[in-house]
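Per your request, structure below.
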């Protein structure tokens, strides 16, 4: 993957650019290359903090890399390679309560939830739990850099990306009014889809509002295409916003409680960002959501969706259960409407004469922004070409 000249057309300004070539969607070798250059070299989402209680361990297969996320008794989330330092045994096969240690099921080497090797039974012979050549301080679990933002667990497998606070600085600043406020997972407010498409197609579709009138006619009936605007932060994220957000109202006239101290922009506005590479986020005055795209193969993606609220009552109480159900149902149907599109684009990439496609400078800027970023991960430093 030394010759990247084939990506030059992708790196052009949007008016003259082509999209990523077919190989980036249908080729096993390219899927493996993107695993390293795009997913492992940046901060990618692998799970939700809400899914791990203190003392629990959750195994995660991240594009073939065995990881385990734990939450310490102090409440911190840590991510390790799910591999014992002794003989390479997988430590955790399924999510479970582990108490204070991760114990290898093979020879019972034990690790603290902070990664240190704390027990090596019989390692020096029967009844002898130490050996001068087994230096526990050198044999802790391999920790993977991780950071939790908006309840998404991000990891940088390569260890070479900037600190997350710098990597995501523009997105954090853009939604600064929400920063520091809790995002509380709704009861029964998670769902997912198994989609026959390359993960990037889900990002591309999410970035833009151009498809609203035809793919989401119900949503477009009150939040129209002309009410939307493009969001582009080259090298970081892209997406869309709407000037017309209509909060859900219950039969007795209630709305979900709003997040606190928001500016007037959010009274009727909402925004939707694709934070590169694989996390899709949405914020509204009264709820938010996160979508993690889990690449399973060149042509298969698991979409994991979680919806969040501003107060414990809205997120968990029976008082809001009917409203939560309706909100979850609404978003489920909206995201379901996109499936035929991303799966159809995957099928279309088998057209051997497809050249990556043409972008509308007016409507496709956010999508090209993502293509440009992916292409730039393979060596060309052409962000200046924007």
């Amino acid at each position: 993957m030394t010759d990247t000249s084939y990506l030059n057309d992708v790196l052009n300004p949007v008016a003259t650019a082509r999209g990523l070539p077919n190989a980036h969607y249908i080729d096993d070798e390219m899927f493996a290359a993107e695993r390293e250059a795009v997913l492992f070299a940046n901060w990618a989402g692998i799970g939700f903090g809400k899914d791990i209680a203190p003392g629990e361990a959750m195994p995660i297969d991240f594009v073939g890399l065995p990881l385990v996320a734990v939450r310490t008794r102090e409440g911190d989330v840590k991510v390790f390679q799910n591999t014992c330092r002794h003989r390479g045994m997988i430590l955790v096969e399924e999510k479970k309560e582990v108490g204070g240690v991760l114990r290898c099921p093979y020879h019972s080497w034990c690790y603290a939830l902070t990664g240190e090797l704390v027990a090596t039974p019989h390692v020096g012979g029967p009844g002898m739990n130490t050996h001068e050549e087994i230096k526990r301080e050198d044999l802790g679990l391999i920790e993977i850099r991780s950071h939790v933002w908006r309840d998404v667990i991000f990891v940088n497998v390569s260890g070479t990306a900037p600190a997350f606070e710098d990597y995501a600085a523009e997105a954090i600043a853009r939604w600064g009014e929400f920063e520091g406020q809790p995002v509380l997972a709704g009861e029964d407010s998670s769902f997912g889809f198994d989609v026959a498409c390359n993960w990037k197609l889900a990002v591309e579709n999410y970035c833009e509002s151009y498809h609203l009138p035809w793919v989401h006619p119900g949503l477009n009936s009150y939040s129209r295409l002309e009410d939307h605007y493009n969001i582009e932060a080259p090298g970081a994220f892209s997406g869309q916003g709407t000037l017309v957000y209509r909060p859900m109202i219950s039969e007795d006239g209630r709305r979900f409680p709003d997040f606190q101290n928001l500016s007037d922009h959010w009274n009727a506005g909402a925004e939707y960002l694709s934070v590169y590479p694989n996390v899709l986020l949405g914020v509204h005055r009264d709820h938010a959501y996160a979508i993690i795209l889990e690449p399973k193969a060149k042509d298969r993606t698991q979409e994991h969706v979680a919806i969040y609220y501003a107060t414990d009552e809205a997120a968990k109480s029976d008082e809001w259960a009917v409203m939560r159900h309706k909100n979850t149902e609404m978003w489920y149907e909206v995201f379901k409407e996109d499936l035929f599109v991303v799966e159809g684009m995957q099928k279309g990439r088998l057209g051997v004469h497809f050249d990556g496609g043409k972008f509308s400078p007016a409507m496709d800027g956010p999508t090209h922004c993502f293509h440009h970023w992916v292409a730039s991960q393979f060596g060309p430093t052409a962000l200046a070409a924007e």
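Residues 380-386 have pLDDT under 50 and may be disordered.

Regards,
D.
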